[in-house]
């Protein structure tokens, strides 16, 4: 088969579409014949040599895919050869075939085509596990999504809206209209406006109950300042650095909390529990049309370098898909 190899870490042209050995399904695994994968921010870091795959994961980038079950290993029940699926991966989505632990497979939700389904697993699992399971976002609360135009952000806006929260986003101004269409009530141009002031203004001074943050260090103090009493800040990205000072007094006075999580390195059992929760709680919202894949564009998988340039520019809204066939 072919897969996207990285012979030497570097810029987008470090990605090389090359012939590699076929994967075999191990115990508890299924081999998926890939129809599409999607670019995640983490893939850019992996290409640059800053984010190696966890032990046992395929060497090729790609944290999610959609496709058709091609082979089933020992000890797998509930899946059949020929079934259309999508999957959360620890790597290997940029390939014609990938071996996946069966607990990370999902059916293609009703009303979503097979290619578009590749836009869902990583964002659905990340957003649901952090915003719902960890931060406990409730109906009537305010959710602040930092980087609302990202793949993660566009999903969080829709999920928060579907759950009855008021959703506020930060994004550059060109993305505001699209984010309002997806359900955001307020869009803040973080380049021109102070998001702490704006969040306070639109919440009558209360602040945000939950913040989903992708910036890390550069936003930590301001995120804490933008939290409501009892607020929960969840950091999932470090685009603004990893080390910053935390004012525990400010947190304590608000009875607020800060958490940080990563999905890729979790044990298989935790990933399977998240995937099961997404299937149970999020897939019905997708099937009902309340949450949709947001696809900026589709490119043939061998042109992944072009897709990486686009994502690096931040000019996209939602996901960039890589297709095969
Ligand atoms: N921890 C986990 O398990 C996990 C899982 C998945 C993703 N992530 C993280 O989540 C983040 C989003 O991932 P993705 O693949 O969805 O990213 P993406 O589509 O590449 O989007 C990145 C976004 O960052 C925004 N941005 C840049 N500077 C900003 C700033 N100062 N304030 C607000 N937004 C800013 C850009 O929007 P503008 O054009 O508006 O600037 C862009 O939409 C990444 O940091 C990724 O590493 C973490």
Structural class: alpha/beta
- The count of helical stretches stands at 10
Q: Helix content range of the residues, please?
A: 25-40%
Chemical compounds bound to the protein: NADP nicotinamide-adenine-dinucleotide phosphate
Number of strands: 15
State the order of secondary-structure elements, H for helix, E for strand: EEEHEEEEHEHEHEHEHEHEHHEHE
Low-confidence stretches: none
Estimate the mean pLDDT confidence.
98
Please compute the radius of gyration using only Cα atoms.
19 Å
Pfam family, one: ADH_zinc_N_2
Protein name: NAD(P)H-quinone oxidoreductase
Keywords: NADP, Oxidoreductase
Organism: Micromonospora rubida
Give the arrangement of secondary structure elements.
Blueprint: E1 2-5, E2 16-19, E3 29-38, H1 41-47, E4 64-72, E5 84-88, E6 97-101, E7 105-107, H2 121-134, E8 142-145, H3 151-162, E9 166-170, H4 176-181, E10 186-188, H5 195-202, E11 208-213, H6 220-226, E12 227-235, H7 248-254, E13 257-260, H8 268-281, H9 283-287, E14 295-300, H10 304-313, E15 319-323
Parallel strand pairs: 8-9, 8-11, 9-10, 11-12, 12-13, 14-15
Antiparallel strand pairs: 1-2, 3-4, 3-6, 3-15, 4-5, 5-7
Residues 40-42, 122, 126, 146-147, 149-152, 170-172, 175, 190, 214-215, 236-237, 239, 261-263, 311, 314 line the site of NADP nicotinamide-adenine-dinucleotide phosphate.
Keywords: NADP, Oxidoreductase
Protein name: NAD(P)H-quinone oxidoreductase
Organism: Micromonospora rubida
Features:
alpha/beta; binds NADP nicotinamide-adenine-dinucleotide phosphate; 28% helix; 7-stranded mixed beta sheet; 325 residues; NAD(P)H-quinone oxidoreductase; 10 helices; globular; 6-stranded parallel beta sheet
């Amino acid at each position: 088969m072919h897969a996207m190899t990285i012979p030497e870490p570097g810029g987008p042209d470090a990605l090389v579409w090359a012939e590699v050995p076929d994967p075999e399904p191990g115990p508890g695994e299924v081999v998926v014949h890939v129809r599409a994968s999607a670019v995640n921010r983490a893939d850019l870091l992996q290409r640059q040599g800053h984010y190696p795959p966890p032990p046992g994961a395929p060497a090729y980038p790609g944290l999610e895919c959609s496709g058709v079950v091609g082979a089933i290993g020992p000890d797998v029940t509930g899946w059949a050869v020929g079934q259309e699926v999508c999957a959360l991966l620890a790597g290997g989505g940029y390939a014609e075939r990938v071996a996946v632990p069966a607990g990370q497979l999902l059916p293609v939700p009703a009303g979503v085509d097979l290619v578009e389904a590749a836009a869902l697993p990583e964002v659905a699992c990340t957003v649901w596990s952090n915003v719902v399971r960890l931060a406990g976002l409730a109906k009537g609360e305010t959710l602040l999504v930092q980087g609302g135009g990202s793949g993660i952000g566009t999903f969080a806006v829709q999920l928060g809206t579907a759950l009855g929260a008021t959703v506020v986003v930060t994004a550059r101004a060109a993305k505001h209209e699209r984010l309002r269409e997806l359900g955001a009530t307020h869009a803040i141009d973080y380049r021109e406006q102070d998001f702490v002031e704006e969040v306070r203004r639109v919440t009558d001074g209360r602040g945000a109950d939950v913040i989903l943050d992708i910036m890390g260090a550069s936003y930590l103090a301001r995120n804490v300042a933008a939290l409501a009493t009892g607020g929960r800040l969840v950091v999932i990205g470090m685009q603004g650095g990893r080390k910053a000072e935390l004012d525990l007094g400010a947190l304590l006075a608000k009875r607020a909390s800060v958490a940080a999580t990563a999905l890729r390195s979790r044990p298989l059992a935790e990933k399977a529990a998240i995937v099961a929760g997404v299937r149970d709680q999020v897939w019905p919202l997708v099937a009902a049309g309340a949450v949709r894949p947001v696809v900026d564009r589709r490119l043939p998988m061998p042109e992944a370098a072009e897709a990486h340039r686009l994502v690096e520019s931040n000019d996209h809204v939602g996901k960039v898909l890589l297709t095969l066939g």
